[in-house]
Amino acid sequence: MSPSPQVLVVGGGPGGGSAAFWLARRGVDVLLVEKKHYPREKACGDGLTPRAVRQLIDMGFDLDRPDIHRVVGLRSYAGDVMLEMPWPEHSVYPNWGATLRRSDLDGRVAALAESAGATVLQGVEAVAVLENGSLSAVELRRKGGEAEVVVPQYVVVADGSLSRFGRQLGATRRRDYPFGLAVRGYWESPNSTDGFIESQLDIRDAKGRAMPGYGWVFPMGDGTINVGAGLVSTFKGWKDINTSRILEAYLAELPRHWQVASEPLARPIGGKLPMAFSVGPKSGRNWLLVGDAAGAVNPFNGEGIDYAYETGRLAAGLIADALATGDSDALAVYDEMLVAEYAAYHRVARIFVSVIGNPSVMRTLTTVGMRSRPLMEWVLKVMANLLEPEERGMAEKVYVAIERAVEMPGVGLLID
To answer: How far is Cα 326 from Cα 330, in angstroms, rounded to an integer?
Structure first.
């Protein structure tokens, strides 16, 4: 390792791994530091959507390994109504997704970055050194070892939803934007090779009362399934309920085909999900935030892996260009590029999660909307952000259709 790499990447999750890979591919001297050691557990559904799969393909990730389970679509429940929908065909993204435990995924992407020329250090914590409020250096700390100070030209901040490094730089979450809370665990299941991921939009407690939140099952293909529950801060009563209680209620009514054992393989873990690019500022004179550190989680579905890969790649391109041209102002366009790529979509998503936070609206949406396959296929396409480039304006049109579904039974007639 050189004493001071050109670029330091803080955090070895999807955003950091992607940034390190694409920087190394551009010939940049890049150091990736991960506070923990691979493999490490993450509170994640372990799902890879077609957008995430596309990014992994571009990095040369081996998606044919036997421990990677391919999924062909979504099976969605709302009470007694069930609908199976395949991933849509797309000109850019594959029509399939996958599942792989984050404990395996992140280390493999970091290894790809290392193969491309990056240096990867595990068990190293990065702490910002500030002068007059600006990032001037970074202290690297190892447990039981001497701290080392490096002075990279640029830093990619990819240390996750808590982002201690980002907070040191003054990054904060907008309180008027939604955030999510989620918990997940692993259970044994003889149906772990199911080709569909599964969601439940109407969870009830033991007395039949509706609970705020949603549940999921992601089959892992290895004899286990990832079962989780989450809720968004726009849901009515979200402060008064623990996600573990939602998970317990969901497990009690889990479809029989999963045949889960009574106890999880390990204690479920949870986390907080900053959404809709709610964290800022996202850039400084010599640093950029990516992934969960920037709040890049999709409010529609709580998905963050693909946006971490995408923002890490975007940040890497800007920094590589800045190094090649000597123009540090190149980083100033990062926020504009994020707005151009994601702002309209996430604005619709914020409106959507605010609307479904009303229990009566959520019930109507699930009972009426779920009975219209054409509507739900469009909703899946929008929620997974799989619109074709020429369909970008369609997100708002679908949102209008959802609003009409709340008010008008038989909305399927509008789009059949």
So the answer is: 9
Concatenating the DSSP letter of every residue in 354-388 gives HHHTSHHHHHHIIIIITT-HHHHHHHHHHHTT---
SS3 content of the chain, % helix, strand, coil (to 5): 35, 25, 35
CA 212 to mean position of chain CA atoms: 21
Helix/strand/coil for 85: strand
Q: Which residues pair with 349 in a beta bridge?
A: none
pTM value surpassing 0.85 = yes
Total Cβ atoms within 10 A of residue 385: 21
Cβ atoms of 236 and 212 within 8 Å: the answer is yes
User: Is residue 198 a contact partner of residue 217, using CB atoms and an 8 Å limit?
Assistant: yes
Angle of helix 394-407 versus helix 344-356 axis, rounded to 10: 10
Q: What is the DSSP letter of 411?
A: T
Long-range contacts of 140-145 (CB under 8 A, 24+ apart): 140/33
Residue 376 Cα distances to 63, 120, 289, 368, 398, angstroms: 29, 43, 34, 10, 10
The strands making up 124-131's β-sheet, listed across from edge to edge, are 124-131, 134-142, 148-150
Return the number of other C-beta atoms located less than 10 Å from residue 13's C-beta.
29
Where is 228: in which H helix or E strand? strand 224-232
Per-residue pLDDT tens digits of the chain, which is 416 residues long:
447 999 999 999 999 999 999 999 999 999 999 999 999 999 999 999 999 999 999 999 999 999 999 999 999 988 778 899 999 999 999 999 999 999 999 999 999 999 999 999 999 999 999 999 999 999 999 988 889 999 999 999 999 999 999 999 999 999 999 999 999 999 999 999 999 999 988 888 888 877 778 899 999 999 999 999 998 898 877 888 889 999 999 999 999 999 998 899 999 999 999 999 999 999 999 999 999 999 999 998 889 999 999 999 999 999 999 999 999 888 999 999 999 999 988 888 888 888 777 766 676 767 677 777 887 887 788 888 898 877 766 656 665 665 555 454 433 332 23
